[in-house]
Amino acid sequence: MTSDSHGHTAQLRAKPVMLFDGDCHFCRRWVERWRGMTDGRVDFVTSQEAGARFPAIEPAAFERAVQFVDFDGNISSGADAVFRSLRYARNAGWLAWSYEHVPGFAPVTELAYSLVAKNRSFASAATRLFWGEDVRQPSYFQSRRIFLRLLGLTYLIAFVSLWIQIDGLVGSDGISPVGDYLSFAREQVGARAPFLLPTLCWLNSSDTFLHLLCGTGAGFSLLLLLGLVPPLSLAVLYVCYLSLTIAGQTFLSFQWDILLLETGFLAIFFVPWSWRMRRADEAPFSPIGLFLLKLLLFKLMLMSGVVKLTSGDAAWWNLTALNYHYETQPLPTVLGWWAHQTPDWFKQISTAFVLLVEVVAPFLIWMPRRLRLAGCALLVTLQVLIALTGNYAFFNLLTVALCLLLVDDASWSKLLRRVPRDPLERDPRNRVSPPLRAVAALVCIMLLPGNAWLIYSAFKAEADPPKLLAALDGAVEPFRVANGYGLFRVMTKTRPEIQVEGSADGIVWLPYTFRWKPGAPNAAPRWVAPHQPRLDWQMWFAALGGPRQNHWFVGMMEGLLRNRTDVLRLLAENPFRQTPPRYVRAILYRYRFSTPKERRETGNWWMREEMREYLRSVSLE
């Protein structure tokens, strides 16, 4: 199939024609792909059917290579013919341009074509292995429907979860009132503050307005779940959650918060621009929007794996990280206790599996169908295992939603046992409008350099970005649309826990009970995800540092001294219901999971020992 000879036939044609060997399985499969890409602008016929109509082409040439005859009768063959036909394809004109203008592209592709042509049986077997029987350009309409509804569900969980905590966290009577925070920011940076902290709370920071943001977000999440006004819903959801993320300060600084913002923003360019999502009337989707969402998944997983290996933490290299992880993670589940009891060799294999999935599987995102589906299966499996052993809010659900974008319509048809809809039956005029394509392309151009640098920084954390890129990142960063990721870069080896206590006389001390974090040794770890108890999470971070690194901790202690209702609602039990305590303090303990023997003998899930005073006794005076 190697030939780059050119010829000419005097016959003018209404359409260009691609002639191929109808007896070649490989040719038939790939011609179907090109037929779909060119949307009927090129006629694809077998040489057995139509070869006689082109006497300028020798019969032996059909066996060596595909032949392309353009409008004027010019004939090309081999890779040249393929790329000339792709001039008429959507989103593939750059390939034809590259063949003609990029040095080295033409000879390399001709060589590759020649190798395939001389080994058709092998190429056909490889096609079956990596693509299956259908190599046509994949569509993702079913994945888009599932993804957008899972995104709506994730947004709904995020807004409702925050709604029931917002007063105690950043309300006017909460731990870190947002009004005070914004006033301080304006004092420090002046008129630039709203641009550095883009939140609607600059207009109104009252408790009522915070509830309005949460309620609006919950309402539009339901609309997205129902498939109604998806572009408007996503825009409103992004603005509301960005506003709350800024207002939430450290309580909304988690990686899944910025992941939700980045996903929600990029989904605007992938969502159907119609008032309702309906299966019977598929609105077009932007390939650029799909690419950006896949790039986000690639970045999320690859960075998460690479930063573990470049952090300098030997626990990842010697595969002992999971020896510590199950009991030192912020909020383990009861299955986390059981996972911790498994043999060390099993935990080492599990650690290797985590690194393999996070470092290798992301590259399968860009591979042919069967490799891409294998990558999806690995990534989803990892998220399920993480969710079973630890409480990570809506992170696992959102990541799985992104993973499902790797499953094309043909694969869904097999999974759901449905008759697939032929992509060629779709109306070729049903395309994303030029203005939307232009906006999506502009967003892609703006975000690609920053994302590329973020991925590079996972390998070279000490590298400084170029000045222009740093300036662009500085402009984009406040909006959380291009973020770096990397959970558990360094594995925590021990588990310090803070016990907060109050006293009326400074002699008898009574403990405050938190809803979800470890407290009483005999209390079993519980499932709380996808809800996130944000104070309990922050208590885990606070235990790794000190009160000076966690200014909100002082605000919480003041709330306890004043018996502030909003703050106390975040806790499970208040030992001073009638009269507030005169003093409060915090004691630091070291916790570890009990062994099965200790569990049988004591009934405890945790074993603990007192370490030191975390915060000395303080009072309002």
Q: What share of residues is helical?
A: 40-55%
Spans of at least 5 consecutive residues whose pLDDT stays below 50 are: 1-6, 424-430
- In DSSP terms, counting alpha (H) and pi (I) runs of 4 or more, how many helices? 29
Q: What's the overall geometry?
A: elongated
Number of beta strands: 11
Number of domains: 3
Beta content: 5-15%
Query: What structural category characterises the helix and strand content?
Result: alpha+beta
* Through-space gap between termini: 89 Å
Average pLDDT metric: 91
Strand order of the largest sheet: 1-5-4-2-3
- Cα radius of gyration in angstroms: 30 Å
Largest sheet: 5 strands, mixed
Describe, in plain words, how this protein is organized in 3D.
The chain has 29 helices and 11 strands. The chain is of the alpha+beta class. The protein folds into 3 domains: 125 residues, 3-Layer(aba) Sandwich (Glutaredoxin); 339 residues, no CATH class; 124 residues, no CATH class. A 5-stranded mixed sheet has the order 1-5-4-2-3. It starts with 6 loop residues before the first strand and ends with a strand. The N terminus is likely disordered.
